[in-house]
Fold each of these.
Amino acid sequence: QVQLVESGGGLVQAGGSLRLSCTASGSTFEINGIAWYRQAPGEQREFVAAISRGGGITNYADSVKGRFTVSGDRSKKTLFLQMNNLAPEDTARYYCATGSLVARARSSYGHWGVGTQVTVSS
């Protein structure tokens, strides 16, 4: 089993930045892909970004490309999502997830955190 804890969410003005963190514990040797998803009220959970275990492969949703950067610190078993130039439409609860590969499909990820709220005011 893998346990995931997200942090770093908050309230920020449009154009601002936040850095989310996701710390993993448990059977982390199983992890080959780590992803960020987000879910706004009344919306489906959507893919944001993903990174491979070694960091050599990244994948971003078109809506965040050029603004968000996913990275990881393997020694600390922590995943980061640097979010710049935030917009009100980025408001959502952000979740990290781990799985056996890097992919956009939710079904690729078997372990999920409880999320951290990001609110962007206009």
Amino acid sequence: QVQLVESGGGLVQAGGSLRLSCAASGGTFSGYMLGWFRQAPGKEREFVAHIGWSGVADRVTDSVKGRFAISADNAKNTMILQINNLKIEDTAVYYCAATRSDWTNRAVDLDYWGRGTQVTVSS
């Protein structure tokens, strides 16, 4: 059974950085697409970034481009989301997701989810 476990969240001051990790286990991930969503209180879950397990086909949503970077470490079965210059509006639970199919930004169509890691940005 595929499992995704996020880590690296926390409380950070605006302007700081965080490195979120998503550890994948329970499967062979060659050909998978992985990505990050976030959900702020009272808001819908929104797409943040995706990447192919081989490290290609990466994309970061326009609203965070230049501050967020996604990468994959095949040797460690881990996906990384590097977040720089954090803003208060980045406060959310960040979720890792994966699919065996082509990537979609529709959360309901993705195959696997982690439980999330909380990111809180203070002023």
Amino acid sequence: QVQLVESGGGLVQPGGSLRLSCAASGSDYYVIGWFRQAPGKEREGVACITSKDARTFYAYSVKDRFTISRDNAKNTVFLQMNSLKPDDTAVYYCAAALWAGAMLGPYEYTYWGQGTQVTVSS
């Protein structure tokens, strides 16, 4: 069983930055991913990081703007979001996958956090 708690969302102006945190309890997972879902849209993968060797993968829409990282001592994964755009507005979720090949497909993930709202608006 893995429990995930996100934090760090909020309101930010276009061009601004936010850092999201995902605190995980338990260690029986291989990959932590960040996902987002905007109203009326499907949930989409944003970034993921492997537990064993910290390999990362990003969606094209956020590459070079977002950075995923981890602090193993705190069992926490971060998503640093820079140069935010209104299109980044969504509820952001972190999720844990139980197999090492998981990437950005929501169906690959077993455990989910409750989500944190990110709103990019002037």
Amino acid sequence: QVQLVESGGGSVQAGGSLRLSCAVSGNTYSRNRMGWFRQSPGKEREGVAAINSDDYTAYADSVKGRFIISKDNAKSIIYLQMNSLNSANAAMYSCAADPRWYLVLAHFEFMSWGQGARVTVSS
């Protein structure tokens, strides 16, 4: 069992940056891979970025070059640095954990979820 708590959401102007954090606690085995996902009203949840215990990363094409996923193992925190934000990036962002190692961005491949942090982007 693993617990996930997101923070860092808020409102930002288009072109700005925001960093989300996900504090992780619980079973270390259950978090071999971690991911960030987002969902906007009326849309399906989509994978944004993922990282595994060997620090391999994967990104959705729409965020490559703008978003960076990282982790601080000592603090048990997963970060999502989001740069050059636009209105399409506004959503509820959630972090997720799973005991499997291989990287995927499919939400159904992750077992544990946080409550989410809302990101709004104003033009």
